[in-house]
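Section 3.1: Structural characterization of target chains.
Under the original work plan, the team committed to producing a structural model for every single-chain target entering the pipeline before any wet-lab resources were allocated. The record below documents one such target. The sequence was received from the expression subgroup and is listed exactly as submitted; it comprises 440 residues.
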Amino acid sequence: MKPFFSGVRKLTRSARSIGGRFGWGVADQALSSLTNFVIGFLAARGLSQSEFGAFAVVFAVFLIGLGVTRAINSEPFVIRYSAVSADRWRHGATWATGTALAVGALGGVACLVAGIIAGGALGSGLVAVGVALPGLMLQDTWRFTFFAARRGRSAFTNDAAWVLALAAGVALLAVADSWSVGSLVLAWGGAGTLAGVIGILQAGVVPTPNRSLDWLRDQRDLAPRFLGEFTVTTLVSQITVFGLGILAGLADVGALRAGTLLLGPLNVLFLGVGIVAVPEGVRALVSAKEKLLRVCRRLSITLASFALAFGTAMWLLPDRIGVALIRENWHAGHSVIIPLTLVVAFSGILLGAGIGLRSLAAAKLSFRARLLVAPISLVAGLGGAVLAGAVGAAWGMAFAFVVGAIIWWRYFLKGLRAHVVGPPDERAATDVYPVIHGDA
């Protein structure tokens, strides 16, 4: 019986270790989302309608910068530096975080110029985000670098520092009674910048912006395609929202937004799992292709099951509780819960394949999958809106995600068959054993 109990103990320790790493990912994403939620909530409560519109534009600029930075820095880093020695990790981290600073600085200068030209509330917001953009891009890149090293606790601590600094900044604004687009963005961005500086101390790594071109040269096979994926995804989502407003009306846009809001916790879960899953997939691939396949299958099944369970719970929620949550938007949001639950469930299945393609560094295949799925999503969503408003759009999106999941898994299996097991990247690592001992 000893071998049996020994095997059980090893399996239990392994499950706890994996669960802990994914737990840190979800917890960190919850904190990261909290900072964005808090600043948006305070802006909605403390600013006029026109000022809040200016804030929305400024925040959209930040999200674009974030998407670009992740495409050319964070995602290539976790693919190529999640299964390397500590020395190689530090080497990569100096280049990746330095590039994040450089990208943030370029974007910041553009925001400063645009802010000076625009003037008013929008101008002050753009100037504020321009000042903070380098630090914000650095802070987000630290999150990915820490998870690549299995240092989930460090990422969580860094985001906790942002939350605490933001709370202090908001308290100062309240005492000074200084609520404006510029002051709110500066308090939020300043707190994020402070967290970015703390990340340098945590990692013991100094960013090197002067090596940005070297970094981009090394990632030329990944970064452009990842940037293309981000661009396609952003365009499709924005065109769908605007198209729904034109074809069905703003009330239907609100209904879709309300339903999405009710399923919001799933978004935090998926993002948190995703930030951990790619490094885990890269390390699994070092052992065997079959191990990566098992990881991705389990991930897809787990996320889809959780989404179905959560969506069912929201659909069965009593009206009195739903109205208490989102008031008059409850009934409109409830009408699209079932198709949106299917959207999230199949996006979980798709995510498993996407993690697999990222782990394989198969940027060409993932970009092809994205390009193939994008028009299907657009046509299905807008076609559904023409036929049945928000409900039709939601069912159209569900259909698109079913097809999308099939396409992504087809490309993942194709990439897996073609992959030759070996070091994650010969250029980035000659010592590819997972010897980084993290705190997760």
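The radius of gyration is 22 Å.
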